[in-house]
Design brief:
- The chain has 107 residues and is mainly α.
- The protein has 1 helix and no strands.
- The longest helix is centred in the middle third of the chain and has 105 residues, at 2-106.
- The termini are far apart.
Length: 107
């Protein structure tokens, strides 16, 4: 009876060791799976940040371009108005000179 009791205890101890080893392995697999999921999520977040950063950079560039285009258009409009005014003044001066020359001719 002592021998059978000793075998039973040894077998129980070995069974407990095998069960503990399987539990540790299972825990390690679960931990690795959780780590893998966290890493995938981290990579996704980095990708989203990079995409957002590129989008913001594009929007900034487009806003600067729009501002520059508006400024150029405003400068063109001003230049055009200035050219019109200058032409109008030249025409008025020419008309005034013609009128003065005509007045001198009649004197």
């Amino acid at each position: 009876m002592r021998e059978s009791e000793r075998r039973r205890l040894i077998r129980a101890e070995l069974d407990d060791q095998v069960k503990a080893k399987k539990t540790r392995e299972s825990d390690l697999r679960d931990e690795q799976a959780m780590y893998d999921r966290l890493m995938e999520e981290h990579v996704k977040l980095l990708g989203h940040r990079e995409t957002e950063k590129k989008r913001q950079q594009y929007e900034k560039i487009m806003a600067e371009k729009d501002s520059r285009d508006r400024q150029l258009n405003e400068e063109k409009r001003k230049r055009k108005n200035e050219d019109k005014m200058a032409f109008k003044q030249e025409v008025e001066m020419v008309d005034r000179l013609k009128a003065e020359m005509e007045a001198e001719r009649h004197l």
